[in-house]
C-alpha cells in the first residue's frame, strides 16, 4: 500500500489529541474523545472507561506535538517508512483540525534535521514528507536531542502549553537516550514488524514511562 493510501486512511480516522499536561489527565465527560491518546492508553487491550482521554475545552492553551521520524535504512524494509509517512500525514491533518502546533524532526544517515515547524499545519502535508529519504544508520540520540532542544525552547516561551513527543521508529538502534524532561507526554509508535521482533522500541517506552503502541492502533476502523 502506498503512503498516500495510508495517509488517506489515517486522515479519515478521526485522530484526536490528548492535551493534558500530565500523562494521566483524562479531561471531563461531555467533551470529544481524544482517540489517539485513548487507543495509546489501551495499549492494544479492549477499550475500557479508564482508557478514555478527552479533547480540551475552549480556551485551553494550544498544544504542541513534536514528531520524530526514524528514516534509517531498516525503516525501508517492508515499507515501514512509507507507512510512517502516511500516518504522519493523517496526524498532521488531525493537528490542523485541532489547531495544535507541530514540528517534524527526521533522523537517519548520521544526522538529524527539522523538516517542519513549529507551526499549525494548514494544508496538505505530503510535500514536507516526500523529500524524506531513508538510509544509513540509526542516530536515535541525535534525533531525540534535537527534539529535546525544541521542547525546552517551547517550555521557556510557552510554559503553560502542553507538550508531547511522538517517536516513530522500528527501534533498530542500540542507543538509549535519556527521556526528554520537557515532554509532558511521550508516545512511541513501534514499526518493528519483523518476523523476529527486537522489542527495543517497547523497552525504550518503558524506560521513558511513555505510551507504546503499534501504528495500527492510531487508525480507527
From TrEMBL:
Pfam family, one: VWA_2
Domain VWFA: 61-219
Stored InterPro entries: VWF_A, vWFA_dom_sf
The name this protein goes by in its record: VWA domain-containing protein
Species for this entry: Burkholderia glumae (Pseudomonas glumae)
